[in-house]
C-alpha cells in the first residue's frame, strides 16, 4: 500500500468537495423552486400551461443529463440574442451552465415526486378538513402539504443522492469538482484503482450523510407516529 | 455555400443522417448488451443477498453499495484506465511487450453492466421476496425438484414482479450509454459532438441527439409496457 500517494490523492480530491457540494446545493435549490412551479403548472386548469409542464418533465427525464449539459454549454452560445444579453457572462461559464443543467434536470424529477406525493394524500382527510370548515390555503397548509411532504420525503432523499452523483458530469465541461480532479490524476498517473478508491469513498461518505439527514427529517416528520415503533 | 438544416441532417454527401443513425445503433447495442450483462450480475447479486450465510450477503451488500453510490462516470474511468493497465500487465507477463487496451465498446458494456446489475439486484431481490411462499411449499410438496420449481413457479413470477423496476432501469441504462462518449465510443452523443464541431451547429446536433434519445426511450418503453401486460395475463380476471 502506497500511503503517501493515497494521502496526496485524498488531499487533492478533498479540495474539490466544496465545488461538488455547491453544484448539488445550488442545483437542488433552483431545481426545487422550478419543480414547485412545474408541478403547479401540471395541475393547473389552463391547458397550455399543463402541456408545457408535461413537455418539460418528458424532455428532461427522457434525455441524458450529459446531452442537456452539452446543449446548454455549447448550444446556447449559438443564439445571437443570448450572446448579446446580460445573461451571457453567466452562460459562458461552465460552472453556471452545469448548475442550470442540474437544476432543470432535477426539477423534472422533483415535479413528478411532488405530483405523486399530492396524489397520495387520502381523499378522506381532505373531506374531513372541508367538513370542519377548512378550505383554500388553510386546508393546504394544515392538511394537504404536511401529508404530501411525509409521502414524498423518502423519494426526494434518493433524488438528492442522485443529484450528488450527477454533479460528477460537470467534470466533462472542465468544472474542477471531485470527478474532474480524479480524471486528471488517473490520466496522469495511470493508477486508476487507487484514485477510484479515494474518490469513491468521498462520494459514498457524501451520500451516506445525505441518507442520514433524510432519515432524521423523516423521523421528525413522523414523530406523531412514534408510539407505533417498538 | 453553407448547407441548410435539411442537407446537414440528410443522407447526402454533406449530410450526417447516416452517421447519426449508425451511432444510434451503437447506443442501442451498448444499452442492450449492458442491460443483459447487468441482468446476470443482478441475478447473482440477488442470490448473494438472499443467501442464508453471512459472507455472501455481505459481498452482495458491498456490491450494491459501491455501484449504486459512486458516480457512473468514475466507474467508466476506472475500467477504461484500470482495464488497459491490467491487460497490459497480463500481456507483458505472458511475454508480449507493448501497450494493450480493450475495445471501448467492451469496457463500456462492462461498466454499464456492473452499475445496472447493482440496481437490478434490488429489483430481483424485492420481486423474489414478494413471491407467495405457499406456492413454493406446494410445489415442493408435489415433489417438484428444485430446478423445476425454479422454472415453473419462481422464475416466471419473479420476472413479472420485477418488470416495472426493470423497465425503469432500462431507461437509465439507455441514458447512461451517453457517458461512454467520454472514453471515445462513437455513440449518439459523441457522433453529435463530432458533427456539431465540424459544422458549428451544436444546438442542432445536440438537439437531434436529445430527440433520438427520447424516441428510443419512448419506443422501448412502450414495448416493455406491452410485455408487462402480456406477463400479467394469467393473473387478470
Automatic annotation (TrEMBL), chain A:
GO terms under biological process: amino acid transport
Keywords: Cell inner membrane, Cell membrane, Membrane, Transmembrane, Transmembrane helix, Transport
InterPro entries: AA_ABC_transptr_permease_3TM, ArtM/GltK/GlnP/TcyL/YhdX-like, MetI-like, MetI-like_sf
One MF annotation (Gene Ontology) recorded for this entry: transmembrane transporter activity
Ranges annotated as spanning the membrane: 20-39, 153-175, 195-217
Membrane topology of this protein: Multi-pass membrane protein
UniProt-annotated location(s): Cell inner membrane; Cell membrane
Signal sequence residues: none
PROSITE patterns, alphabetized: ABC_TM1 (PS50928)
Major location category of this protein: membrane
Domain ABC transmembrane type-1, first and last residues per copy: 17-214
Keyword Ligase attributed: no
A matching Pfam family: BPD_transp_1
Record's keyword annotation contains Transferase: no
Listed GO CC annotations: ATP-binding cassette (ABC) transporter complex
Family: Belongs to the binding-protein-dependent transport system permease family. HisMQ subfamily.
NCBIfam families noted in UniProt: HEQRo_perm_3TM (TIGR01726)
Alphabetized PANTHER family for the sequence: ARGININE ABC TRANSPORTER PERMEASE PROTEIN ARTM (PTHR30614:SF10), MEMBRANE COMPONENT OF AMINO ACID ABC TRANSPORTER (PTHR30614)
Listed name of the protein: ABC transporter permease subunit
Taxonomic source organism: Paenirhodobacter populi
Automatic annotation (TrEMBL), chain B:
Superkingdom, taxonomy of origin: Bacteria
Location of the ABC transmembrane type-1 domain: 20-224
Keyword Transmembrane belongs to the record: yes
SUPFAM superfamilies on file: MetI-like
Pfam families xrefs: BPD_transp_1
Principal location: membrane
Any one GO cellular component localisation term in the record: ATP-binding cassette (ABC) transporter complex
Keyword hit for Heme: no
Membrane-protein topology: Multi-pass membrane protein
Entry's localization field: Cell inner membrane; Cell membrane
Residue spans crossing the bilayer: 20-48, 69-87, 99-119, 203-227
Family indicated by similarity: Belongs to the binding-protein-dependent transport system permease family. HisMQ subfamily.
Protein name from the UniProt record: ABC transporter permease subunit
Organism, scientific name: Paenirhodobacter populi
Lineage: Bacteria, Pseudomonadati, Pseudomonadota, Alphaproteobacteria, Rhodobacterales
Amino acid at each position: 500500500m502506497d500511503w503517501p500517494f493515497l494521502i496526496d490523492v485524498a488531499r487533492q480530491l478533498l479540495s474539490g468537495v466544496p465545488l461538488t457540494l455547491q453544484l448539488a446545493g445550488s442545483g437542488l435549490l433552483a431545481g426545487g423552486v422550478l419543480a414547485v412551479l412545474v408541478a403547479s403548472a401540471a395541475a393547473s386548469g389552463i391547458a397550455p400551461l399543463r402541456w408545457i409542464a408535461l413537455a418539460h418533465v418528458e424532455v428532461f427525464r427522457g434525455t441524458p443529463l450529459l446531452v442537456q449539459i452539452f446543449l446548454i454549454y455549447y448550444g446556447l452560445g449559438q443564439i445571437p440574442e443570448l450572446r448579446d444579453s446580460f445573461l451571457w457572462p453567466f452562460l459562458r461559464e461552465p460552472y453556471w451552465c452545469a448548475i442550470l443543467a442540474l437544476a432543470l434536470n432535477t426539477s423534472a424529477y422533483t415535479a413528478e415526486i411532488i405530483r405523486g406525493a399530492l396524489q397520495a394524500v387520502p381523499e378522506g382527510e381532505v373531506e374531513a378538513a372541508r367538513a370542519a370548515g377548512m378550505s383554500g390555503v388553510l386546508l393546504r397548509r394544515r392538511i394537504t402539504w404536511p401529508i404530501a411532504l411525509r409521502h414524498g420525503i423518502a423519494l426526494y432523499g434518493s433524488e438528492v443522492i442522485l443529484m450528488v452523483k450527477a454533479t460528477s458530469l460537470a467534470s466533462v465541461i472542465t468544472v474542477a469538482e471531485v470527478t474532474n480532479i480524479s480524471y486528471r490524476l488517473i490520466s496522469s498517473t495511470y493508477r486508476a484503482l487507487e484514485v477510484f478508491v479515494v474518490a469513491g469513498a468521498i462520494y459514498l461518505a457524501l451520500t451516506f450523510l445525505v441518507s442520514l439527514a433524510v432519515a432524521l427529517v423523516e423521523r421528525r416528520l413522523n414523530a406523531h407516529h412514534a408510539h407505533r415503533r417498538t | 455555400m453553407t448547407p441548410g438544416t435539411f442537407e446537414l441532417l440528410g443522407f447526402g454527401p454533406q449530410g450526417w443522417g447516416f452517421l447519426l443513425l449508425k451511432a444510434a445503433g451503437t447506443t442501442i447495442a451498448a444499452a442492450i448488451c449492458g442491460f443483459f450483462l447487468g441482468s446476470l450480475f443482478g441475478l447473482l447479486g440477488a442470490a448473494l443477498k438472499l443467501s442464508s450465510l453471512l459472507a455472501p450477503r455481505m459481498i452482495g451488500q458491498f456490491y450494491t453499495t459501491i455501484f449504486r453510490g459512486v458516480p457512473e462516470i468514475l466507474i467508466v474511468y476506472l475500467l477504461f484506465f484500470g482495464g488497459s493497465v491490467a491487460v497490459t500487465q497480463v500481456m507483458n507477463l505472458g511475454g508480449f511487450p507493448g501497450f494493450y487496451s480493450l475495445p471501448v465498446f467492451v469496457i463500456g458494456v462492462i461498466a454499464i453492466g456492473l452499475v445496472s446489475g447493482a440496481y437490478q439486484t434490488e429489483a430481483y431481490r424485492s420481486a423474489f421476496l414478494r413471491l407467495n411462499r405457499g406456492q413454493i411449499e406446494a410445489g415442493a410438496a408435489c415433489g417438484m425438484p428444485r430446478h423445476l420449481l425454479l422454472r415453473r413457479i419462481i422464475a416466471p413470477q419473479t420476472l413479472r414482479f420485477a418488470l416495472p423496476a426493470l423497465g425503469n432501469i432500462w431507461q437509465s441504462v439507455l441514458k447512461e450509454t451517453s457517458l461512454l462518449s467520454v472514453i471515445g465510443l462513437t455513440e449518439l452523443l459523441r457522433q453529435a459532438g463530432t458533427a456539431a464541431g465540424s459544422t458549428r451547429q451544436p444546438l442542432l446536433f445536440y438537439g437531434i441527439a436529445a430527440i433520438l434519445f427520447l424516441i428510443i426511450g419512448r419506443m422501448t418503453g412502450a414495448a416493455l409496457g406491452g410485455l408487462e401486460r402480456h406477463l400479467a395475463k394469467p393473473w387478470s380476471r
